[in-house]
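Postdoc handover notes: sequence design on the structure in folder B. Input tokens:
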């Protein structure tokens, strides 16, 4: 009897492990596929996901996102750019304000830029941006700019927040480590919800 119980326990465990591996594998494929897709407008706003800045100077990652958002704006894909991101430890100014200054230097009028400065993760940035977009009176259709590996997660978060989102990633390369990290985040977020995931990470 103990042997029979052990055998069935091992079978159940093996089956669950196989399902987990399959789920993670499929999710990895979806993250990779999303990283290779590119969308354009029309949209009511372009949302630029935050990234590091150094004393007001955008990091290469943030600069790449801002430059791409400027290209989309200049092409007429959306009339407004929302720059996002609060302060990280040791920052003197916010990522959002750094993005604002950079876009102004490129010639984007102040009236076409909205600033989100409270978010410290993707969920918080998109949650606050969704309020900004709706308060501006536009539709909930947005175009999100981020790095390729991040595309599926931000689209999923936006959907959870009630936004109709497309993603236009930068041309940055994605490493296997970045894709796998996003796979874990998406796999967990789909189960527990991205709001809860943001609160525990």
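Designed sequence:
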């Amino acid at each position: 009897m103990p042997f029979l119980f052990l055998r069935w326990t091992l079978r159940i465990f093996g089956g669950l492990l196989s399902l987990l591996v399959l789920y993670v594998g499929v999710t990895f494929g979806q993250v990779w596929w999303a990283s290779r897709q590119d969308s354009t407008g029309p949209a009511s706003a372009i949302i630029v996901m935050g990234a590091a800045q150094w004393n007001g100077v955008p990091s290469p990652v943030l600069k790449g996102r801002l430059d791409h958002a400027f290209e989309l704006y200049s092409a007429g894909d959306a009339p407004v750019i929302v720059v996002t991101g609060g302060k990280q430890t040791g920052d003197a100014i916010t990522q959002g304000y750094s993005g604002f200054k950079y876009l102004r230097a490129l010639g984007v009028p102040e009236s076409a830029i909205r600033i989100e400065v409270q978010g410290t993760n993707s969920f918080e940035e998109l949650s606050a941006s969704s309020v900004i977009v709706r308060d501006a009176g536009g539709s909930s259709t947005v175009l999100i700019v981020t790095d390729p590996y991040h595309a599926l997660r931000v689209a999923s978060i936006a959907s959870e927040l009630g936004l109709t989102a497309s993603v236009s990633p930068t041309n940055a390369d994605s490493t296997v480590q970045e894709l796998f990290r996003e796979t874990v985040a998406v796999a967990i977020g789909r189960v527990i919800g991205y709001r809860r995931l943001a609160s525990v990470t």
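Context for whoever picks this up: The longest helix spans residues 2-35. Don't rerun without checking with the PI first.
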